[in-house]
């Protein structure tokens, strides 16, 4: 009899369908989500905060209006916004509810998974993704579905991203990552939020040592922890010269989404071992695990989620029941 699939694994595997459903839903939520031109703050806690970071970068890049992302507990009360959007899976997170209660006449919206949760009553308008709710403590499909919804609302076509997620679920994990003693996740623009979320997933599920930074910050200190048996995973564009910097440490580079360099050229000779870059190795390049597909960055996050589960299971941990965590933080 095959072993039972954990709730976390089942939820990770369901993401391509969830993203397609989110894209179909987006056109009907024009009155709920931020309107073009509105000065918007997006708030959340934990994973939801990282989704907020990614959305804020995407919305500004799309010319939809000034957009800031905050941890709900760090919202600057002196600032004025046309709308505050809260993201909360449970709809019960204390910091989010307290913030919404204190915003007065500022228009508010929420994205949540529970139609009966307090945030639906606290926010002026709500988008309910109950079909993306989760049994697991560790968030996967709700967070990515919320971001898929927001990307679709900005006019993006999510069909390719969903197809990439299916490939990310079927493909082997990047070689050597299961044995890595430390992983640094990097991103640029909207993928900085994905880097933070990937790092959080490995910490939550497996208690792994992970860090996350904007990619160009890597040389300003974080490079010091990279070395043999450790890895650097880049979401989106790989800045020019960074592959060589990782190679010099002896660390492994994973770059499976976005262009290889700022110019879009193949990685320079002497780069670190790479997994899933989608580029053929140059002559003279260091050892690599072989070329692979290039994924939408959100689909690349699915690979990181799978790695989190694999690390948890290898360490004898239960990804459905992470240490010291609850499904929602409700403060007295």
Topology at a glance:
Layout: H1 7-13, H2 15-25, E1 40-44, H3 47-61, E2 67-71, E3 83-87, H4 94-101, E4 108-112, H5 118-122, E5 125-128, H6 141-153, H7 159-170, E6 182-187, H8 191-206, E7 210-214, E8 230-235, H9 242-249, E9 252-254, E10 274-275, H10 297-314
Parallel strand pairs: 1-2, 1-3, 3-4, 4-5, 6-7, 6-8, 8-9, 9-10
Helix pairs in contact: 2-6, 2-7, 3-6, 3-8, 7-10, 8-10
What do these coordinates show?
By secondary structure, the protein is an alpha/beta fold. It has two domains: 7-157, Glucose-6-phosphate isomerase like protein, domain 1 (Rossmann fold, 3-Layer(aba) Sandwich), CATH 3.40.50.10490; 163-314, Rossmann fold. It has ten helices and ten strands. It has helices at residues 7-13, 15-25, 47-61, 94-101, 118-122, 141-153, 159-170, 191-206, 242-249, 297-314, and strands spanning 40-44, 67-71, 83-87, 108-112, 125-128, 182-187, 210-214, 230-235, 252-254, 274-275. A five-stranded parallel sheet has the order 2-1-3-4-5, with helices on both faces. Strand 4 (108-112), helix 5 (118-122) and strand 5 form a beta-alpha-beta unit. Helix 2 packs parallel to helix 6 (141-153), helix 2 (15-25) packs antiparallel against helix 7 and helix 3 (47-61) runs antiparallel to helix 8. The longest helix has 18 residues, at 297-314. Mean pLDDT is 88; it is low at 260-291.
- Record the strand order, biggest sheet: 2-1-3-4-5
Helix content estimate: 25-40%
Radius of gyration, Cα only, in angstroms? 20 Å
The largest β sheet comes out as:
5 strands, parallel
**N-to-C span:** 45 Å
- Would you report the number of β strands? 10
- The mean pLDDT is 88
Name of the level-1 CATH class of the largest domain: Alpha Beta
Count of helical stretches = 10
CATH-derived architecture of the largest domain: 3-Layer(aba) Sandwich
Q: Which H/E pattern describes the elements?
A: HHEHEEHEHEHHEHEEHEEH
What fraction strand? 5-15%
Find the CATH superfamily of the largest domain.
Glucose-6-phosphate isomerase like protein, domain 1
Q: What form results from the Cα inertia axes?
A: globular
Oligomer: single chain
Class inferred from helices and paired strands: alpha/beta
Q: Could you name the CATH topology of the largest domain?
A: Rossmann fold
């Amino acid at each position: 009899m095959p072993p039972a699939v954990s709730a976390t694994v089942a939820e990770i595997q369901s993401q391509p369908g969830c993203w397609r459903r989110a894209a179909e839903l987006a056109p009907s939520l024009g009155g709920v989500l931020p309107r073009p031109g509105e000065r918007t703050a997006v708030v959340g806690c934990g994973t939801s905060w990282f989704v907020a970071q990614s959305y804020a970068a995407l919305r500004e890049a799309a010319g939809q209006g000034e957009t800031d992302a905050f941890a709900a507990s760090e919202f600057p009360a002196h600032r004025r916004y046309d709308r505050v959007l809260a993201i909360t899976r449970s709809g019960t997170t204390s910091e989010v509810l307290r913030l919404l209660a204190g915003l007065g006449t500022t228009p508010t919206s929420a994205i949540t998974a529970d139609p009966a949760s307090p945030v639906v009553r606290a926010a002026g308008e709500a988008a309910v993704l109950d079909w993306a709710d989760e049994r697991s403590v560790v968030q996967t499909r709700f967070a990515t579905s919320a971001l898929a919804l927001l990307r679709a609302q900005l006019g993006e076509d999510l069909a390719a991203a969903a197809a990439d997620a299916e490939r990310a679920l079927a493909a082997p994990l990047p070689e050597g990552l299961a044995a890595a003693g430390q992983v640094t996740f990097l991103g640029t623009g909207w993928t900085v939020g994905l880097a933070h979320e990937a790092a959080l997933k490995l910490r939550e599920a497996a208690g792994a040592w992970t860090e996350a930074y904007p990619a160009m910050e890597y040389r300003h200190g974080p490079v010091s922890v990279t070395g043999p048996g450790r890895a650097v995973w880049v979401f989106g564009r790989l800045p020019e010269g960074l592959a060589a910097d990782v190679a010099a440490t002896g660390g492994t580079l994973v770059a499976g989404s976005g262009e290889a360099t700022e110019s879009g050229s193949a990685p320079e000779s002497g780069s670190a071992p790479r997994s899933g870059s989608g580029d053929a190795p140059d002559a003279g390049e260091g050892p690599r695990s072989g070329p692979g597909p290039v994924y939408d960055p959100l689909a690349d996050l699915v690979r990181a989620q799978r790695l989190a589960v694999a690390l948890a299971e290898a360490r004898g941990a239960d990804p459905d029941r992470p240490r010291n965590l609850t499904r929602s933080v409700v403060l007295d």
